[in-house]
């Protein structure tokens, strides 16, 4: 992928649409198209474009953006995050966000890109964002399931691929494990399948997948610093809190619900969309082995899954004309959680009030804003 100058005057994208095999590029098609920063964030992007965009973010913001490879996929592709924050002489707290753990949920990586763009666009002029950038580092993985995401771009027949791309075992000829059933959090107990052809196949054991292991390793190293964990999915318009097992409750369940409901309120204020808040068994279905549950299990206090638009009309194939409004409202919801998290850590009094005021103002601004 070659990208020349992502800026307000526009750019030329030479996009290499890579189609996956087992660690190799089966075929590639070159296309040339004009775009601008305004419409870049209203389109879905293949993995090569997202990788080039990540490099672009680092080049344009060297003082606040760096990248880190923290694992490899089954097909030996790098799993890379962006670390965003102002430099500090003291150890900083952190916010984790990952997108694209399920390959077909294209709106999720689009949101991670939008989120990065917005905090980089506003931190120099918005005093609250600037304060949070001083006190927090953001660790953002735009695409976690890289193999699966690339495969979902292969052609129409693979567009709805969900899982990783590791081969089945024990004579099973199907591919892939549901990465969000593979974490060491009540693994294999409910809402999973042991059939390797199933969409919810949980793997041969917890952390059988290198992608789940990479996240687990990073969270384990950083768990004393991470204040909030956000994993972005689609669809259903939900904010899910731990746990996915119907008989287990998080010790801070009331707080999680309060913060989640505040985020849903901030979301609704942008474009009027309703998001339901609750545990997975209460509002969706029981499941186990999710990254959200693992984060809460190891002591990260605030852990949420966002299920973005819509409620089933388009499902995983959300049209591109809904990318911008979806990202705008989700940004308001995420900012509510992050602001609450920040203020609780650094100004423990009145954190909820501050977060609510900030996200209400943000939602009002977003609803009237025009992308520059």
TrEMBL record:
Family statement = Belongs to the peptidase M14 family.
Q: Which residues form the signal peptide?
A: 1-23
**What gene name is given for the protein in this entry?**
cpo
> What name does this protein carry?
Carboxypeptidase O
Q: Which organism is it from?
A: Oncorhynchus kisutch
Domain Peptidase M14, residue spans: 43-341
Alphabetically, the GO molecular function entries are: metallocarboxypeptidase activity; zinc ion binding
The active site lies at 307
Q: Which cofactor does it need?
A: Zn(2+)
Q: Which InterPro entries would you find in this protein's record?
A: CARBOXYPEPT_ZN_1, CARBOXYPEPT_ZN_2, Peptidase_M14
What GO biological process term is on the record, naming one?
proteolysis
Q: Which GO CC annotations does the UniProt entry carry?
A: extracellular space; plasma membrane
Please provide the record's keywords in A-Z order: Carboxypeptidase, Hydrolase, Metal-binding, Metalloprotease, Protease, Signal, Zinc
- Give the domain of life: Eukaryota
Note the Pfam families from the entry: Peptidase_M14
